[in-house]
Design a protein that fits this description.
The complex is a heterodimer of chains A (266) and B (331). Chain A contains 6 helices and 15 strands. By secondary structure, chain A is an alpha/beta fold. In chain A, strands 11-10-9-12-8-1-6-7-13 form a 9-stranded mixed beta sheet, sandwiched between helices. In chain A, a hairpin with a 4-residue loop joins strand 3 and strand 4. With 331 residues, chain B is an alpha/beta fold. Chain B has 2 domains: 175 residues, Rossmann fold, CATH 3.40.50.620; 125 residues, Rossmann fold. Chain B contains 8 helices and 18 strands. In chain B, the strands form 4 sheets. Chain B has a 7-stranded parallel beta sheet, sandwiched between helices. In chain B, strands 15-14-16-17-18 form a 5-stranded parallel beta sheet. In chain B, a hairpin with a 2-residue loop joins strand 2 and strand 3. The chains are: A alpha/beta (266), B alpha/beta (331). Chains A and B meet through helix 3, helix 4, strand 9, strand 11 and strand 14 of A and helix 4, strand 7, strand 9, strand 10 and strand 13 of B. Strand 11 of chain A pairs antiparallel with strand 13 of chain B.
Chain lengths: 266, 331
């Protein structure tokens, strides 16, 4: 079985919020010093979902990312978890892509690869949080798509997916090939093994440009964007931020209750 | 370029009536339609939609399109995507809004891909720019650390609205509108729902609770959630959690509050041993009052709270429970 996992390298969403800064003129986040970029957590879980399938049956997993040189680290991470191959899609023409351009580029890369049974993505990138690429990619490839998977099983030539719904889950059957987006309920992503890291370091990662995958330039990058970013800002906190004190925890707690009663909160 | 007219809203259903988010959407849609000087239409998909159609008119729709069929009683991504796309192709709305719900999240990117539409998801504010007459969208990004303001450049201008970011307006049962049944025919579906497993939700639903006591990664295990339950009971509320306790299996995943969990807006939100990471706070920022109990004085939660104590919850909560009990019985 051939599985392709699409991943994105992002600023670490677990970074201390106090270090989060924006260049408002450029409308961009300033990458925080000393905090490495990471694979978007839901994408890492998509890699895990692929590896869970490979644990049970013969599968070949390819990881793919659209990015520039730093994204190599993201690819290496996935490879060291047990993924077989990596492909980088890198071109200045891809810069400032929205979900539609990103999905378009990924779809052209899929066309070039030609043979695949299952495409996995994280449910949303933990930086822009849009949650669109996986489904749009499925549309561009003409494939069925299931979102928010917490469990994926291959049964015969089809998929059995448990999909998160409010207060529970539904079990969905669908044919292959298909696209599935993965949610955190799939479970924690496995850590790279020492052996995996060594193997990953040796693996060549081909880089494909726009012309390598036959992209129509009018569908690429900032020029093709369907929305325009007017501003990016850190919202002001308008909470009272009052800290109630006491001689010890119990007294502070008691004083807190009194305060809440005074303020008619309780 | 722009032969698109009118605002269309896909109204989520709840049993036989409109879901709360649908009422919120209609309120937003009505304002946008008024600002554009155009009509508001609602799309209802499901089975037995008569009552809901009248509700939609009361909440502001001029026209209600009904795709009413037993086949569509339950959500199916393929059929709902096809119906919404078909209506948009017929109607060419300027704006198409959905709730940022399980339904809206699922079909909005598929519909946008088919229509060549623009799409911004999880918006907390939507308005028409008076000079360009285009849809301006405000949405949280970077896990809630930042806000992005965007304007659409392609039509229809699609957006999903975060539930509870606006209040629904009051219904007007005297409003008149037109109900139009949609002929849907049989549709190809490639995915099929085989089963649905719902967790039984005990007590007050999180989205309806007036008081929530939530536990985070700092709680040392399932057993300690008993303390939170006790506090919730005294205050007439219910228990919630961040992602970690749910992932660890200490509480049911249905208690998760946050960006990828439930969005809540109680009168009182007590965050116990919660660091205050934006992805979690995204779920509770609508709370009237936020109270924090955390032993780490550097925790981000203190910035995000109205009243807090720096204390270990294991020492603080028993005293808090006792004092609250005392104060409540005195009143």
């Amino acid at each position: 079985m051939d599985i392709i996992v699409c991943i994105k390298q992002i600023i670490d969403p677990e970074m201390p919020p106090a270090k989060f800064k924006i260049d408002t003129a450029a409308r961009k986040v300033i990458p925080p010093e000393g905090i490495p970029l990471v694979v978007s957590p839901f994408d890492e879980q998509a890699v895990e979902a692929a590896l869970l399938i490979k644990d049970k049956q013969n599968a070949r997993i390819t990881v793919m990312t659209m990015g520039h040189d730093p994204a190599r680290e993201a690819m290496k991470r996935a490879l060291s978890m047990g993924v077989d191959e990596g492909i980088m899609l890198s071109d200045a023409a891809f810069d400032d892509s929205d979900a539609f351009s990103t999905a378009y580029v990924l779809s052209k890369a899929m066309d070039k690869i030609g043979q695949y049974d299952l495409i996995l993505c994280g449910r949303q990138a933990a930086d822009w949080d849009a949650g669109q690429v996986g489904s749009v990619l499925a549309e561009y490839l003409g494939l069925p798509v299931i979102t928010l998977a917490k469990k994926i099983e291959v049964v015969g030539g089809s998929l059995r997916v448990e999909r998160v719904i409010p207060d529970g889950y539904e079990v969905v059957g669908l044919p292959l090939p298909a696209v599935v987006t993965v949610s955190s309920e799939i479970g924690q992503a496995r850590l790279p093994t020492g052996r995996g890291i060594i193997m990953a370091a040796r693996k060549p990662i081909p880089v494909w440009k726009a012309t390598d995958i036959g992209c129509d330039p009018s569908r690429l990058g900032g020029g093709a964007a369907r929305s325009e970013l007017l501003s990016l800002f850190i919202p002001a906190q308008n909470r009272r931020q009052e800290v109630i004190i006491g001689a010890d925890a119990a007294e502070a707690a008691s004083n807190l209750a009194v305060k809440l009663k005074e303020e008619k909160v309780i | 370029m722009n032969d698109h007219r009118g605002v269309l809203v896909l109204a989520d259903m709840q049993r036989q009536g409109l879901a709360i988010v649908a009422k919120e959407l209609l309120g937003v849609g009505r304002k946008l339609a008024d600002d554009l000087g155009e009509e508001l239409s609602a799309l209802l998909i499901g089975s037995g939609l008569q009552t809901a159609s009248q509700e939609a008119i009361a909440y502001g729709a001029d026209k209600v399109y009904m795709a009413d069929s037993p086949d569509m009683a339950d959500f199916n991504s393929d059929t709902y995507t096809a119906v919404a796309t078909m209506l948009c192709q017929k109607m060419a709305p300027s704006v198409f809004l959905l709730g940022h719900t399980s339904l809206g999240r699922d079909i909005s990117p598929r519909v946008a891909a088919r229509l060549g539409a623009s799409l911004s998801t999880d918006c907390i504010k939507l308005e028409i720019d008076p000079s360009s007459r285009r849809l301006v969208q405000t949405r949280p990004v970077y896990g809630g650390n930042a806000m992005a303001v965007l304007v659409a450049k392609a039509y229809p201008q699609m957006a999903t609205l975060r539930p509870r970011s606006v209040s629904p307006s009051a219904p007007d049962t005297y409003r008149k509108g037109q109900v139009i049944p949609l002929e849907v025919g049989s549709m190809e579906t490639r995915s099929k729902v085989i089963d649905r497993v719902k967790a039984t939700v005990e007590g007050i639903k999180l989205e309806e609770a007036k008081v929530i006591v939530a536990g985070g990664a700092g709680i040392t295990g399932a057993h300690d959630f008993q303390l939170l339950r006790e506090l919730a009971d005294v205050l007439g509320g219910t228990v919630g959690a961040t992602r970690q306790p749910c992932e660890e299996g200490w509480v049911s995943p249905s208690l998760q509050i946050g960006q990828t969990g439930k969005i809540v807006s109680p009168d009182l939100y007590i965050a116990v041993a919660i660091s205050g990471a934006p992805q979690h706070m995204a779920g509770c920022l609508g709370s009237k009052h936020i109270v924090a109990v955390n032993k780490d004085p550097q925790a981000n939660i203190f910035r995000m709270a109205d009243f807090s104590i720096v204390a270990d919850y294991r020492e603080a909560l028993p005293a808090l429970i006792e004092k609250c009990r005392e104060l409540k019985s005195a009143s």
